[in-house]
Amino acid sequence: MKTMTFEAVAESAYGKKLASPIKYSGEYEAYLNMTEIMDKNDFPKDQEIVDFRNTQRKANARQKALQTALDAAGIIKPTLENDEQMRLQNMFKILVAAGKSEAEAKAIAAATLGVEWAE
């Protein structure tokens, strides 16, 4: 086994957006091969495998049904080519990453693309 570490950022908790993201980290012992799992007798039970596979199948069916419903309702997935607000948001993110203030980035993006911000 090998000790593995992870880092993550929580942007929401208990169904609410946090005022500022919280960074956290931890560690766990990871198996390196099947022999280690067998030595620890840590195989999933048959019902756990069935539940796992059924959860995967349900998620896949749910996504297909949702896509069918969205298609039937005429709702298309927004892309840079068909959504001016998405283009505006992306340009804003680039400008902020380049060191512009949020207000300045919003103004530059709107002026450059000729698009007003939707509220």
Discrete helix count: 4
Q: Round the mean pLDDT to the nearest integer and report it.
A: 95
Give the % helix.
Answer: 40-55%
- What is the N-to-C order of secondary-structure elements (H for helix, E for strand)? EEHHHH
Count all strands and give the number.
2
Q: What is the CA-atom radius of gyration, in angstroms?
A: 23 Å
Q: How do the strands of the widest beta sheet line up side by side?
A: 1-2
Tell me the distance between the termini: 51 Å
Shape: flat
Largest sheet: 2 strands, antiparallel
How many structural domains does the protein architecture include?
3
Strand content: 15-25%
Low-pLDDT stretches are: none
Structural class: alpha+beta
Describe this structure in words.
The protein is 50% helix and 23% strand. It has 119 residues and is of the alpha+beta class. The chain folds into 3 domains: 1-42, no CATH class; 44-75; 84-113. A hairpin with a 2-residue loop joins strand 1 and strand 2 (16-30).
Provide keyphrases for this structure:
119 residues, 3 domains, 23% strand
